[in-house]
Amino acid sequence: MKALKIQPIKNGTVIDHIDPGCALKVLRILKIPEEKKESIVSAVMNVKGKRGRKDIVKVEDRELDPKEVDKIALLAPHATINIIRDYKVVEKHLVEVPDEITDIVKCANPNCISNAREHIRSRFIIKSRTPIRIRCFYCGREPEDIASRII
Amino acid sequence: MDFSRKEIEYVLDCAEKMVPTARGEKTSDSLKGRIMASLFFEVSTRTRLSFETAMKRLGGMVIGFAEASTTSTKKGESLGDTIRMAENYADVIVMRHPLEGSARFTAEIARIPVINGGDGAGHHPTQCLLDLFTIKTERGTIGKNRVAMVGDLKYGRTVHSLAHALALFNTKMVFVAPEQLQMPREVLEECSELGASISVTDQLEDIIEDIDVLYVTRIQKERFPDPEEYEKVAGSYVVDCDLLSQAKKDMIVMHPLPRVNEILPEVDNTKHAAYFRQAFNGIPVRMALLSLVLRGES
C-alpha cells in the first residue's frame, strides 16, 4: 500500500513548488510555530515533482494575506499558493514579486535613515527577479541575505 | 544620482551661463525675495559656503545652521519635524545629514524642493555635477577622456556618483586603489551595464602616461586598523611633480578637497592643478540648480 507522506488538509493554505531547501525559511517568515495555536503545520522537503525537486508547506486553518504572499515571493519566487476549503482547492495562484515592497524587509545598513528614529516605512525596489535582488529606496544598499532581514 | 545624460547636460549648460555672475562680473536679482534654508547637520566648508554664495549672487537670502548641535536636534527633535518647520520658513532646502537616504526621505515629506548636499556615505550629487562641469570646461568635452580615479574608492561617496555619471557619457575609466579600497562591486557592475569601458589597477605609475584626468581622493586613516598599513598605502598614491613629469602635458588633476598629503603643494602651481578651479565651479553649478528648482529656468 502506498502511504501518503502528508495528509490532505480540510481548511487552510498549501504552499507548493517552494525551491528545495526553502521550506524552513517560509515557515520562519510566516512566524510558525505560532504560540497558543493548535492547528497543524506540515512541511516536506526535497520531494520529487513534475518540475523537479521542491518543498511543500501546509498550514491548516489559516489563509495567507497579500503581505504574507509578498514575503514568500521574495524567498520562493516559483511557489504556488492554494487556498483549501472543505478539502477543495478554491483558489490557486502563483506568487508574484511586486515592483516595490513596503514594511517587509529591514535595511541592513545601520546608517540608513529608514533605521533611524523617524516616522518612516521601510521601502525596497526590486532590482532583479531571477535571482531576487532588492535595493533600499532610501540608501540604495542591497541586502545579501534577504531572509534574515525580513521583518 | 538619478539624472539622465540629457538632464546633466542641461544643468551644465545652465551653469556655464552663470559663470560671469558667479565671478561677480555681472549682478543678478533673479531670486530676489526667495529664501534658501541651509540645513547642515554635518560640517562642511565648500558645499555650504558655495551654496550660500550661489543663492546670494542671485539676489536671494539664506537662513540655516552649520552644525546640528545648535538646533533642537540636540533636544531630540526628529529630522521629519525639523523639515516640517523649515519648509514653512523657506522656498528651498539644501541639506547635509550624516544618515544615508536622509535627503530622499526629506524630499518625500517636504512641500518645497530639496537639494542633497551630501547624505552620510551615500550621495553627493552636486559635487558630481561640479566635477562634470570641471571636466567639461577644462577639457572641452566629457566623453572623450580617459579618467583615472585614485584613492579611497570604496568609501568615497563622490567617486561612486562620478563613476555612474561618467559611464552615461561613455567615458573610459580606470580605478586605482589597493584591493581593500577598490570600487564596490555594485558600482563596477553598474558602469559595465551602462556600457562604459572600465579597468582596475593598484599601480598609479602604470597608467599615468595614458590618462586625461586624474581624480584624486583622500585615503582616510580610520579605514585601517594598522597605522603602518595606512602609511604604506597612503604613501603609494601621493601625486607630486615627479609623477606628473610622466603625464600628458594637458592632463588635469582634480580633487573634491579637503586634501591632506595626497597632492603635494608643489603641484598647485603646475598647469595640471585644476582643484581650486573645481572648487570655484561649485558656485555656478549650484546657482544653476537653485535657479532651476525655484524658477524652472536659469
Furnish the topology, listing elements before pairings.
The complex is a heterodimer of chains A (151) and B (298).
Chain A: E1 12-18, H1 23-29, E2 41-49, E3 52-60, H2 66-75, E4 80-85, E5 88-94, E6 100-102, E7 123-128, E8 133-136, H3 146-149
Antiparallel strand pairs in A: 1-3, 1-4, 2-3, 4-5, 6-7, 7-8
Chain B: H1 5-22, E1 35-40, H2 46-57, E2 61-65, H3 79-86, E3 92-97, H4 102-109, E4 114-119, H5 125-139, E5 146-150, H6 157-168, E6 172-176, H7 185-193, E7 198-201, H8 204-207, E8 213-216, H9 227-235, H10 241-244, E9 252-254, H11 275-295
Parallel strand pairs in B: 1-2, 1-3, 3-4, 5-6, 5-8, 6-7, 8-9
Helix pairs in contact in B: 1-5, 1-11, 2-11, 3-4, 5-6, 5-11, 6-7
What name does the CATH topology of the largest domain in chain A carry? Alpha-Beta Plaits
Alpha-carbon distance between the two ends of chain A: 44 Å
Count of individual domains of chain A: 2
Largest sheet of chain A: 5 strands, antiparallel
Please outline the major beta sheet of chain B: 5 strands, parallel
Q: What is the highest CATH level, the class of the largest domain in chain A?
A: Alpha Beta
Q: Estimate percent helicity of chain A.
A: 10-25%
Q: What overall geometry of chain A do the principal axes of the alpha carbons give?
A: globular
Rg of chain A, Cα atoms, Å: 17 Å
How many structural domains can be distinguished in the coordinates of chain B? 2
How much of the sequence lies in strands of chain A comes to 25-35%
Query: What proportion of the residues of chain B form beta strands (DSSP E)?
Result: 5-15%
Give me the secondary-structure category of chain B: alpha/beta
Order of secondary-structure elements of chain A: EHEEHEEEEEH
Q: Spatial order of the strands in the main sheet of chain B?
A: 7-6-5-8-9
Write down how many β-strands of chain A occur, each being a DSSP E stretch of 2 or more residues: 8
Give the overall shape of chain B, derived from the CA principal axes. globular
Strand adjacency order, main sheet of chain A: 2-3-1-4-5
